[in-house]
Specification:
Layout: H1 2-24, E1 31-34, H2 36-42, E2 47-50, H3 54-59, E3 66-67, E4 86-89, H4 94-105, E5 111-114
Parallel strand pairs: 1-5, 2-3, 2-4, 4-5
């Protein structure tokens, strides 16, 4: 019985530690959620990224946007520049936020997310 209580404590401790470490490198000041009006007014000043599924992107998109999977967006082959602002959107804003967090961990700054996503556009 005593063995299980130690095992559970160790597993919980590791889980909490991993969670804290995973949140540590996110620069929340680099992520900005902006209105449709501000997004339209400024999106040409940076890199325009669509993180929706390829089928949705091919069907309808914002002119000039490039399509990336969240898993590819901050890899060394993504061809995104870290010195330029990122304007990012998805269907409803949730996937964009996940992508933005991943990007800040990899050194991207000034990430602007379309509020409520492409559905709002």
């Amino acid at each position: 019985m005593e063995y299980w209580s130690y095992a559970i404590t160790i597993v919980l401790g590791l889980g909490i530690g991993l969670y804290i470490v995973s949140k540590k490198n996110i620069d929340h000041n680099a992520i900005h959620i902006i209105s449709k009006k501000d997004f339209k007014a400024n999106m040409r000043k940076g890199q325009l990224i669509d993180v929706r599924k390829k089928e949705e992107f091919n069907k309808n998109k914002i002119k000039g946007a490039r399509n990336f999977k969240v898993s590819q967006i901050s890899g060394k082959y993504s061809k995104l520049r870290k010195d330029l602002s990122i304007y990012i959107y998805c269907k409803n804003g949730r996937k964009s936020h996940r992508a933005a967090k991943k990007m800040t961990k990899n050194g991207y700054k000034n990430i602007y997310i379309l509020e409520n996503g492409f559905d709002n556009y």
